[in-house]
C-alpha cells in the first residue's frame, strides 16, 4: 500500500481507513485523516465518539484492526482485513511512538521523580542520550513551560496545572514530530486551565504540529487551523474553526456545540 500520490511532502501524518473494534463495538469506523506539518488540529465530539481511540491508534498504544498510518512519509502501521495481519517490524512501531509526543488528561508523571527527573527520564533511558546534555535541554524545557523554579519539586508538590506543564515538557524532551493531546485540561480546576492552554498556544505558535482533543471551544477557535467533529467512530465534519464551530453544517455538530457551550 503506497501513500496517496496526491499528498505532498507537507503532509506529516496520514491515516487511511483506520478501524478499531472492541468486540461488537466499532470505536473507529474507517477514519481517514491528513495532518499538514505545523498544523494545529482540534478534535471535538461527545464522550465515546472515538477521539481517544483515534489518538491511541495514531500512537500505536492501541492496535487497530484495519487501515494504514504514515508519519513523515514512512508507513508505520498497516493492517488488512481478516486474520492476515501485515505486522510492521517493531522498530517501525517504536519510531512511531517516538514520533508522537502524548499528553493525557491525567498527567501520568512518575511520582517518585522530581520535575527535572521526569523530563530527563525518556531521553536518558529510552534514547540513551548523555545525561549532562539532556539535563541542559530539560532545564530549558521547564523554563519554556514556566516552571524554572520547580526543578526539584515532586508531582505531589505541584498543582494540576503545573503537573500538566511538566508532562508537556516531558513529551517535548523526546523531540517528537507531532504532539497529541487528549483532553489535557479536562481534569484541571477551572483556574488552572489557562496556564496549560497558554503553554499549548506558545507551542502552536512555535510551529509544532498538534492534534488536540478538547472541549475548550474557545481555544479551538483561536488556535486551531482546522476542527474535526467526531461522532460514532467517524469524522462527521471537518473545516475551519469558524465554520465548524460557528456555522456547522451537520445537525449532530450543532447539537454537540449547543450542549458544550
Ligand atoms: P472518546 O475519547 O471520544 O470519549 P473513546 O475513544 O474513549 O471515546 O471510546 C470510543 C468507544 O470505544 C466507547 O464506546 C468506549 O466505551 C469504547 N472503548 C474504548 N476503549 C475501550 C476498551 N479498552 N475496551 C472496550 N471498549 C472500549
Ligand atoms: Mg476520550
TrEMBL record:
Domain of life: Bacteria
InterPro entries: AAA+_ATPase, ABC_ATPase_HisP-typ, ABC_transporter-like_ATP-bd, ABC_transporter-like_CS, MetN_ABC_transporter-like, P-loop_NTPase
UniProt-listed PROSITE patterns: ABC_TRANSPORTER_1, ABC_TRANSPORTER_2
Molecular functions per Gene Ontology: ABC-type amino acid transporter activity; ATP binding; ATP hydrolysis activity
Domain ABC transporter stretches: 13-257
Alphabetical keyword list: ATP-binding, Nucleotide-binding, Transport
PANTHER family: AMINO ACID IMPORT ATP-BINDING PROTEIN (PTHR43166), PHOSPHONATES IMPORT ATP-BINDING PROTEIN PHNC (PTHR43166:SF4)
Protein family membership: Belongs to the ABC transporter superfamily.
Name of the molecule in the record: Arginine ABC transporter ATP-binding protein
Originating organism: Pseudorhizobium pelagicum
Amino acid at each position: 500500500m503506497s501513500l496517496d500520490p496526491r499528498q505532498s511532502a507537507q503532509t506529516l501524518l496520514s491515516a487511511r481507513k483506520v478501524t478499531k473494534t472492541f468486540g461488537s463495538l466499532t470505536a473507529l469506523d474507517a477514519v481517514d485523516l491528513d495532518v499538514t506539518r505545523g498544523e494545529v488540529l482540534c478534535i471535538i465530539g461527545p464522550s465515546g465518539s472515538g477521539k481517544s481511540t483515534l489518538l491511541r491508534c495514531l500512537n500505536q498504544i492501541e492496535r487497530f484492526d484495519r487501515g494504514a498510518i504514515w508519519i513523515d512519509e514512512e508507513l508505520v502501521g498497516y493492517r488488512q482485513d481478516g486474520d492476515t495481519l501485515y505486522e510492521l517490524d517493531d522498530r517501525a512501531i517504536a519510531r512511531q511512538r517516538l514520533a508522537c509526543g502524548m499528553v493525557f488528561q491525567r498527567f501520568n508523571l512518575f511520582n517518585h521523580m522530581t520535575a527535572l527527573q521526569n523530563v530527563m527520564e525518556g531521553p536518558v533511558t529510552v534514547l540513551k542520550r548523555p545525561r549532562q546534555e539532556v539535563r541542559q535541554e530539560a532545564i530549558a524545557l521547564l523554563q519554556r513551560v514556566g516552571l524554572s523554579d520547580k526543578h526539584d519539586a515532586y508531582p505531589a508538590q505541584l498543582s494540576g496545572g503545573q503537573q500538566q506543564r511538566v508532562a508537556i515538557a516531558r513529551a517535548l524532551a523526546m523531540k517528537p514530530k507531532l504532539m497529541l493531546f487528549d483532553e489535557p485540561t479536562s481534569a484541571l480546576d477551572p483556574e488552572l486551565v489557562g496556564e496549560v492552554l497558554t503553554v499549548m498556544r506558545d507551542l502552536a505558535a512555535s510551529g509544532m504540529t498538534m492534534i488536540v482533543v478538547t472541549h475548550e471551544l474557545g481555544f479551538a477557535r483561536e488556535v486551531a487551523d482546522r476542527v474535526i467533529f467526531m461522532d460514532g467512530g467517524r469524522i462527521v465534519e471537518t473545516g475551519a474553526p469558524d465554520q465548524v464551530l460557528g456555522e456547522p453544517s451537520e445537525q449532530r455538530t450543532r447539537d454537540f456545540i449547543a450542549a458544550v457551550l
